[in-house]
Structures are given as C-alpha cells and as structure tokens.
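Thread amino acids onto this structure.
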C-alpha cells in the first residue's frame, strides 16, 4: 500500500515487465532537502532550485514524495540505479538501504556524490531502485559455535 504526498509524486514503478527493481524518483518540490556538506561536515537544509547541487563527497536525503507500508516479512532494499552510478558517480553509501515493513513515513534515498565534480539531481529523476525481499526471523540461541569448515579468519578466508 502507498500514499502519494504530492499531486505530481509517483510510486515505485518497474520500467519493463522483466525488471527486478522498481524505479524510485526524486521529489524535490515540497521543501528543503537535508544535505551534509563534505567541505564543512555539517548538515544544512537546501531548497533545490531548480535541482539539487551536490559537490564531491556531499550526502543528501532525497525525498520521494510517497510513503508506503510493506507486508510483514518483506523488506525493501534501496540501491542506486546503475546508470546514475555510471553517469553521475552517485552512490547509496549504506547500500543497500533497508526499508522495514513498520516504517510509517515518507521514503528517502540517501545518496552521496562519489565523483570528482559537482552533480545535480533534478525533480523527477529516477534516482534509485527498490528490490523487495522476504526475510526470516530466527531466534538467537546462546551456545558453543563449532568450526564447520576450514574457512576461519574472516576477510580473505577463501583465498588460501
């Protein structure tokens, strides 16, 4: 279930019938956008006019103009669209970002400009994609954890 928060907002949409992900668009017409400027390390609210300019290293919470409730047992994973990463150098720094089924507010996409130059996000840009996944809840039981293979040592454990 979803609720549009503005007349021109759009819910997540699949671009083709074989698309695994749902495109999410930036909605920049309802007020300021929270940005952390890399140059000063401080948060500020920016009115995007006409788009949102991000300098290298800047992070922003891009509003989507909708809120949605996912079914229990389903999480939404937010990932940058490959074309946005390739053409603009924008990334989702906590990729994939998780939307829980009990999150009740507007959805945002956390983006960071990982390129070497300034990048602009325009109202309506397809900025990210949503992948839906089912998950299991398991009890955490305390006990002895034994070695089940020779894969010990963490990072690089398969490159022996």
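Threaded sequence (160 positions):
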């Amino acid at each position: 279930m979803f609720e549009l928060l503005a007349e021109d907002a759009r819910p997540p949409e699949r671009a083709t019938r074989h698309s695994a992900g749902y495109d999410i668009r930036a909605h920049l017409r309802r007020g300021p956008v929270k940005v952390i400027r890399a140059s000063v390390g401080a948060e500020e609210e920016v009115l995007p006019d006409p788009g949102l300019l991000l300098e290298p290293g800047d992070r922003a919470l891009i509003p989507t103009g909708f809120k949605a409730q996912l079914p229990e047992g389903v999480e939404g994973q937010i990932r940058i669209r490959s074309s946005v990463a390739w053409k603009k150098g924008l990334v989702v720094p906590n990729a994939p970002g998780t939307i829980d089924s009990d999150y009740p507010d507007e959805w945002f996409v956390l983006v960071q400009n990982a390129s070497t130059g300034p990048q602009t996000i325009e109202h309506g840009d397809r900025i990210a994609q949503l992948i839906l996944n089912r998950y299991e809840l398991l009890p955490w039981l305390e006990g002895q954890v034994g070695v089940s293979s020779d894969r010990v040592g963490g990072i690089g454990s398969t490159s022996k």
